[in-house]
Amino acid sequence: MNLVYADEKGNVFDHPDYIALGRSGDMIVELMEEELIPLPRGATLVGLPHTRPVFMDPDTGEMQMLSGNYQAVGALLPQGFTRLALPSYVKTDKNEKFPLFGYTSVVWKDGEFYVAAEQSDDPYKWDPLNCDRGDVRKGVELLTAKYPENRLYKHLSHCALGYECLTSSNTFLQRWEGGVPVSYSCNAGCFGCISEQPDDSGFVAPQTRMNFKPTVDEIVEVMLEHLKTPESIISFGQGCEGEPSTQAKIIVEAMKIVRSQTKQGYININTNAGLTDFMRAIVDAGLDLMRVSTISALDDHYNAYYKPRAYTLANVEKSLKYATDKGVYTSINYLIFPGVTDREEEIEAMIGFAKRTGLKLIQMRNLNIDPESYLQLIPPAQGEIYGMKQMLEILREELPDVVIGSYTHLPPAAARR
What we know:
Keywords: 4Fe-4S, Iron, Iron-sulfur, Metal-binding, S-adenosyl-L-methionine. By secondary structure, the protein is α/β, with parallel strands linked by helices.
């Protein structure tokens, strides 16, 4: 497997004499053949600014840094693929931070690009190539004309057309999982928040957070337009908003109105689930699906990343268990990172968390973060680091009733509330 690297103009090369490597946390590691898959459709190769590639010399077995004005290359994977290793690199300027994306090791092998990854779900519904931008524009024109006073549709049109967000695009295509953002505030200060960053963070938020509180009528209009088929999903909690449960009052009221008019489709919430009382009210209003974002089942790691305000990981666990006990199909949005998620103590804690809460699904999501900043933020490893592939195998073995995937699944028909 050959080293892949790029020049300063973005031209990508492979080196026939040097062996490509990967990275686990802050350690450069060798890649195994069983960890590699062909570069998936929809993946993107990117140069890592202010870096030098690291490779192995096959003659000496030594790890070396590539000389010259070259930079390391990583792959940005589409949803449905779990990365197993980071690109191998050394930063030339430790003060520089990568943009907030999830970078995966990429190599050249057998005449094509390969990545250190594993397919963990069917990527069809979240493949950007399956989202016709012309149809999205037509949907935007149709629904914004039909509801000219609805600020949510105006906001979502920017997400769909400007950011090409697939969830908001689905809202206008009236298919699959569509979004209905409701909150401009949050009860956490996530280190890697994609919609709001403090001025001194050194990161640029890749999208803008909504800046208004929608009315119940605006929410109801979006929900009723989307919930027209048995398999449609409408979701509170989008990347362009804060924590949706901070607006529990209007969510509960909207849900009750919608469910008095239609039983079609599923109502989902993407949440940190820290506000347990509010989450109970939302569950009791008829919630079908709940996806809780977490990075760890260990308090010190969780607190370092999320910086929770007036709640703890114990509150999150209570919310999940309550929802599961009430028949909600519960899942976690598990933000994963090679060299961290596969630590012995992290695996043990997550297995216990899943069993106590009755989780049905773990959605593996590659953490979008600057690696050095993240590793400096969280506690160091306490035990063995197993590797991401083995971590996935352990979870499947220890949690046979939990689906390992990448995005929202519908519950079995028999489990519908």
